[in-house]
Amino acid sequence: MRKFVRYLLIVVVFSAIMLSMAYRGMSTRNLETQLFEASEKGDLATAMNLIGRRTNVNIQNEQGYTPMQLAARGCHYTVAEALFRAGTIANVKGPDGKTLIQTILDSDAPVGDKANMLSTTTEHFGTKEEKNLMYGLAYCYAVEANNILLAKHMLGEGNDMNVKTPKDGITPLVATCAANRGFFVERLLKKHADPNIADNSGRLPLNLAIENGADDVVELLLKAKVKITGLPQDPKALAAKLLAEHPDPKRKRIVEMLAGAR
Fold first, then answer.
1. Are 113 and 143 in contact (CB under 8 A)?
2. Last residue within a domain, chosen from 160, 177, 201
3. Is residue 125 within 8 Å of residue 84, measured between CB atoms?
4. CATH classification at residue 119
5. Is 183 inside a domain boundary?
6. CA gap 59, 258 in Å, rounded
7. Cα–Cα dist 90/86, whole Å
8. Positive or negative, the Cα torsion across 11, 17, 23, 29?
9. Is residue 259 a contact partner of residue 236, using CB atoms and an 8 Å limit?
10. Which of 160, 177, 203 is the last residue before a domain boundary?
11. Is the separation of the CB atoms in 67 and 88 below 8 Å?
């Protein structure tokens, strides 16, 4: 009888342990599922709560994506910051073969979110070359999004100001002239931004400055030895045409400067 009771007690204890482990496993999987969902949706409050409960930030979902990769696809930079601080491993490729940087650049997120996501990533991840690439691209997106403070910060950090955005081939100087942000042009030129690189549509910094009537930018570009001949769109003809359509002192000055340029 005693042996039977002892055996029964062992069975009960073993069953309780197994049930506890099974419940704990289900609970852990549930937390991980919630973290995947929060990362994909950009739900910072939920993500931080789950991180605080020590949910594995490097777990992969059924498709092979980590929470960081899901956050990067939507450029949810606040969630990414929380994941970085929790010790996420970022130097792994997703099941689509993309690196973290490639995932950010291929995202359909608004350019302002892309700029912030790249900025966040530079603080925690990347080689020197990768960081320079991200600084330059984040600058382009920040200017386009009219985030002047972030653009200023990225310009101060970056050293390669001739990078191009993957989709449109926009350089920092093209982005600046397109947005008519003349106060950045001189700093870009000092960082060896090439004024003769066009984007994928053939837009050049000089012609964009002419279109905007930015005589101060045109003057800076001419001093930087920008090309004015052999271009798809002749700068002198463009300036004369715009002056005839919209006569004002700035456009007149542009025509005069270009007339004396070679």
1. no
2. 160
3. yes
4. 1.25.40
5. no
6. 60
7. 12
8. negative
9. yes
10. 160
11. yes
